[in-house]
Amino acid sequence: MGGGIGGLTAAIGLRAAGWDVTVYERADAPPATGTGLGIWPSALRALDGLGLGGEVRTAGLPQGNGAIRRPDGSRIVALDMDAVTARHGEPVHLVARPALLGVLHGALPAGVVRFGAPVGDATALRTEHDLVVAADGIGSRIRTALFGDRHGLRYTGATVWRGTADLDTDAGGETWGVGARFGVTPQGPGRTNWYAVVTAPEHHQPALPAPDELRRIFGGWHDPIPAVLDRYATSDVIRHDLHHLAPALPSYVHGNVALLGDAAHAMTPDLGQGACQAVIDGAVLAKCLADGDVPAGLREYDRRRRRPTQRMAATSLLVNRMSQARRFLPLRDLVLRTALSLGGPPA
């Protein structure tokens, strides 16, 4: 269930292994707009295993070196993508969400994905099918039905605006202020992804309209941030509060149901790994079930994916807490530099 990145990846892999697959997607059509995603080498290798890695690379562009900076433009730490390439054979690729979903949809025959088909209760599906893959997102109803309200979404203390601007940027990165940060990444010629994260109460509604509120907070920060905000009116902007799943699930499987992606391990976006881990979940699940032994395959999927993704989620939450710091900023910057020098971001 769920025609997002993880659900489609699982569907492609399972069909290749001989399964008869149906994807139930509540939206009426694939999304036409969306911001960019960083697809790391591990996820690209998983897509290579499905024969789709080349298409995804072509749909995006390699991410160049960048930096995390202070609002005045001074650098806290470099983001060395050359080091990622040296360790893993290729860089991170920046791909627009609609483009990635387009590649995944294109790998499935017409009719496999049923649009406008929300699933309110998985009980019938569990009875009628050998396997149910719950890829129904961060607010997964299936997760709640199987594991209860104890494992739910927790507010991180921050809200985010995401958009794209008609603007060229040479390099990506983030700028960390006091309880606020701003990020930009190139999307292609004349297009830049951006996001603005602000510490705020949950469901907070600023007194000012969004463009004015963001200019109030970020308008005096270094270039190109003011230029990005000047193009707010022509951006496709979404805003939402940031949540993560806590406590972590005791298992990613229950009977003949497997959870993957945000349904299994909703994490903050601070490592840029949400989409990547959903891709890997889907590919691994398909491999584990290739021989048709559902109980053994689901046990193996849980063994291979639960601990790595939960460690990733915990690390991402730690970075989130650091980025929202309002005191001891020199110590924060030192910890960040040390962490990146010891191994860098996961690839």
UniProtKB/TrEMBL annotation:
<dbReference type="InterPro" id="IPR036188">
    <property type="entry name" value="FAD/NAD-bd_sf"/>
</dbReference>
<dbReference type="GO" id="GO:0071949">
    <property type="term" value="F:FAD binding"/>
</dbReference>
<feature type="domain" description="FAD-binding">
    <location>
        <begin position="130"/>
        <end position="313"/>
    </location>
</feature>
<dbReference type="GO" id="GO:0004497">
    <property type="term" value="F:monooxygenase activity"/>
</dbReference>
<dbReference type="InterPro" id="IPR002938">
    <property type="entry name" value="FAD-bd"/>
</dbReference>
<keyword id="KW-0560">Oxidoreductase</keyword>
<protein>
    <submittedName>
        <fullName>Monooxygenase</fullName>
    </submittedName>
</protein>
<dbReference type="InterPro" id="IPR050493">
    <property type="entry name" value="FAD-dep_Monooxygenase_BioMet"/>
</dbReference>
<keyword id="KW-0503">Monooxygenase</keyword>
<dbReference type="Pfam" id="PF13450">
    <property type="entry name" value="NAD_binding_8"/>
</dbReference>
<dbReference type="Pfam" id="PF01494">
    <property type="entry name" value="FAD_binding_3"/>
</dbReference>
